[in-house]
Amino acid sequence: MKLVKISNKFFNDCKKNNIHKELMFNEDGRPSVLIVRLKYKGNFHKFVVPLRSNISPTTPKNQYMSLPPNSKTKPHHSHGIHYIKIFPITDKYVQSYLISDPFDLMVKNIIDNNESEIIQACQDYLFECENGNKHFMTPDIDGIIKMLDMLDENKDTN
C-alpha cells in the first residue's frame, strides 16, 4: 500500500459522467491509501481510500481506522482512513504523494503496520456493497468502474 494523490482529471472525468457524488475531492492533493487488488463483483480492481480529517464522532468505529489528529481535525472528530469512501482507480489517475514531514511519515508507518487490517476492512466493505448494503455516502463504485472501462476501451481504439 502507498499514500498517493488522485489527479484532478479523475474528478473532472467523474463530473463529466455524472458519477461524482460522494467523492472526496482533491483539496490540496488529499492523500489516499492505494490498495492494489481488491475483489468486487468477481473481478479484481485497484481501489483508493481517502484520508479524512473530520470524521464525525457519531460514525461507527468499524467504518474507519483512526489516525492521530492532523491540523485540520476539529475537536471531538477523528482523522482516519474512511472505508466507506472507497472507490476504484486506474494507474493513469494515480500521482505520487510526497511524504514531506514527520506527521506524514508517522501516518505512513501506522498504515504500513496495519496493512492487513486495512485491506480486510476494505474487502469486507466491498462485499457489503455487493450485497446491497452500501452506505449512502459511498461513491458510485459501479459507475466509476464502467467509466474506467469505457475510457480504457476508447484508449485502445484510438
Which helices and strands appear, and what pairs or packs with what?
Layout: E1 2-6, H1 8-16, E2 32-40, E3 43-55, E4 64-67, E5 78-82, E6 87-89, E7 94-96, H2 102-113, H3 115-130, H4 141-157
Antiparallel strand pairs: 1-2, 1-7, 2-3, 3-5, 3-6, 4-5
Please give a handful of descriptors for the protein shown.
158 residues, alpha+beta, Thiol Ester Dehydrase, Chain A, 7-stranded antiparallel sheet, 4 helices, 7 strands, 34% helix
Compact overview of the structure:
It is built from four helices and seven strands. It has 158 residues and is an alpha+beta fold.
Alpha-beta content class: alpha+beta
- Please count the beta strands (DSSP E, at least 2 residues each): 7
Give the termini separation: 32 Å
Mean pLDDT: 91
What would you call the shape?
Answer: globular
Helical stretch tally? 4
Fold and architecture overview:
InterPro entries: Type_III_TA_endoRNase. It is a single chain. The radius of gyration is 15 Å and the shape is globular. Strands 1, 2, 3, 4, 5, 6 and 7 form a seven-stranded antiparallel beta sheet that branches. It is built from four helices and seven strands. By secondary structure, it is of the alpha+beta class. The chain has a single domain (2-157), classed as Thiol Ester Dehydrase, Chain A (Roll), CATH 3.10.129. The longest helix has 17 residues, at 141-157. Strand 2 (32-40) and strand 3 form a beta hairpin. It starts with a strand and ends with a helix.
